[in-house]
TrEMBL record:
It comes from Nocardia neocaledoniensis. It comes from the Bacteria. Residues 137-332 form the 2,4-diaminopentanoate dehydrogenase C-terminal domain. Pfam families: DAP_DH_C. SUPFAM superfamilies: NAD(P)-binding Rossmann-fold domains. This is 4-hydroxy-tetrahydrodipicolinate reductase.
C-alpha cells in the first residue's frame, strides 16, 4: 500500500528528508509547504536535486492537499511548533516531526502533551516526535540495550557528533562565533545548545520505571576554538572561532546520578584532540554493557534515516501521542529495499 505524504518545512533537514521520501516506493509526496519566499513556487523534486516531481512548494500549510501523513521540520521549540501541529491533526493528518522537544514532552510540557494526545485521538490520527537525538540515540537505543540486564544501576552516554552538514540550527550552538560573541549570544538567549536532553532522559527513565528526583541540564560551553578554516555544507568556521561546544545533562534518583549524558557538537578535523564518536555504558547488577562507535553515529544522516524509516509506522500506529519507544522495532527498522536509486538529473 502506498501512503501519501505532505512536507512542512524545507530547510536543510526537511529537504534531505524529502529527497529520500521521493525515492521511496511505499510513499508518495503530494504536497509541500515552506514560508521561505526563496522556495515558494519551486518544484520539490528540483529543489531536492532529483528533477521535476510535479509537487509545487506553497507558502501556507493550511492549503496543503489531504494526505496520510504530514512530516514537519520547522523548529526545535515545542511551544512554537504546536501551532503548526494542531491544525494538521485537526485536518486528520497523522503527524511526524523532528522537533526535539516533541520526542517525549510528558514531563517537560505536560499541558501541550495532553493537548496533542487529545486532539490526535479525537481525529483518529497519530503524532510522533522522532530523529536521531532525541528519538533514538539517547533514549530508544539505550533502552533497548538495557534488555540485556535485569537491573540497571546507571546509564552513561558520551557523544561527539559532526555538525558540518547542518544549516540554520547551528546558531543555537554558537558554532562559528568568536568566544566573545558566544558569551554575548548566550547571555541574550540566542545560544541555548541542544534541545531534547530533558525529553531523552524522561523517555529513558519512563521505560526503566524510574521516577527521577530531578533532571539537570547544564549550560552549553565552548570546547574547541579553531586555528584552521573548517568548511561545512552551509557554514564556514574561520580561525579564532568556535568549532565545537559541549553540552551535558543528568537525571538523579535517590540522590545519585543514574542517567549521565554529554554531547560535543562540532566541526572536527585531524588536528583536534578528539574526533567524532559515540560511547554507551549500561551498568547493570549482573553485567556491564558497552557499545562504542569510533566514528560516531552521524547526526544528520541518522536523523534523515530515522524519519524516513518511521514514516509509515506512524500512519499505521494507534491514534494518540506516541513516542519512538511505543512503536514496534520491526516497524521502524531500516526499509532500504523500498528506497529506489536516485535517477540522474
Amino acid at each position: 500500500m502506498t501512503h501519501t505524504i505532505v512536507m512542512v518545512g524545507l530547510g536543510a533537514t526537511g529537504l534531505a528528508m524529502a529527497e529520500s521520501l521521493l525515492r521511496r516506493t511505499d510513499v508518495r509526496i503530494v504536497g509541500a509547504a515552506d514560508r521561505n519566499p526563496a522556495v515558494a513556487d519551486a518544484d520539490l523534486g528540483t529543489l531536492a536535486g532529483l528533477g521535476a516531481s510535479g509537487v509545487t512548494v506553497i507558502d501556507e500549510p493550511s492549503r496543503l492537499p489531504a494526505a496520510d501523513l504530514a512530516v514537519v521540520a520547522t523548529t526545535s521549540d515545542l511551544n512554537l511548533v504546536v501551532d503548526t501541529l494542531v491544525p494538521l491533526l485537526e485536518r486528520s493528518y497523522n503527524v511526524m516531526s523532528i522537533c526535539e522537544e516533541l520526542s517525549y514532552p510528558w514531563s517537560s510540557h505536560p499541558h501541550l502533551a495532553r493537548r496533542l494526545d487529545q486532539v490526535a485521538k479525537a481525529n483518529g490520527v497519530t503524532v510522533v516526535g522522532t530523529g536521531a537525538n532525541p528519538g533514538v540515540l539517547m533514549d530508544t537505543l539505550p533502552l533497548l540495550l538495557t534488555t540485556l540486564t535485569q537491573r540497571v544501576e546507571r546509564v552513561v552516554i558520551r557523544r561527539r557528533t559532526n555538525m558540518s552538514r547542518y544549516g540554520a540550527i547551528l546558531s543555537k550552538f554558537g558554532l562559528g562565533l568568536t568566544p566573545a560573541q558566544f558569551d554575548e549570544a548566550q547571555a541574550s538567549g540566542a545560544v541555548v545548545g541542544h534541545y531534547g536532553f530533558e525529553q531523552a532522559i524522561s523517555a529513558l527513565a519512563a521505560g526503566l520505571g524510574w521516577s527521577l528526583d530531578e533532571i539537570v541540564v547544564g549550560q552549553v560551553s565552548p570546547a574547541i576554538v579553531s586555528d584552521t578554516v573548517r568548511t561545512g555544507d552551509h557554514v564556514v568556521v574561520e580561525p579564532g572561532r568556535i568549532a565545537a561546544v559541549t553540552h551535558a545533562a543528568r537525571g538523579t534518583l535517590g540522590g545519585r546520578t543514574v542517567i549521565d549524558l554529554e554531547i560535543m557538537f562540532g566541526f572536527f578535523d585531524g588536528s583536534d584532540p578528539v574526533s567524532a564518536g559515540d560511547d554507551y555504558r549500561i551498568e547493570g547488577t549482573d553485567q556491564v554493557i558497552e557499545l562504542s562507535s569510533p566514528v560516531g553515529f552521524e547526526s544528520f544522516v541518522s536523523t534523515i534515516a530515522a524519519a524516513v524509516n518511521v514514516a509509515t509506522a506512524v500512519v499505521d500506529a494507534a491514534p494518540g501521542f506516541l513516542s519512538m519507544g511505543d512503536l514496534p522495532v520491526a516497524r521502524i527498522a531500516s526499509k532500504g529495499t523500498l528506497l529506489a536509486e536516485a535517477a540522474p538529473v
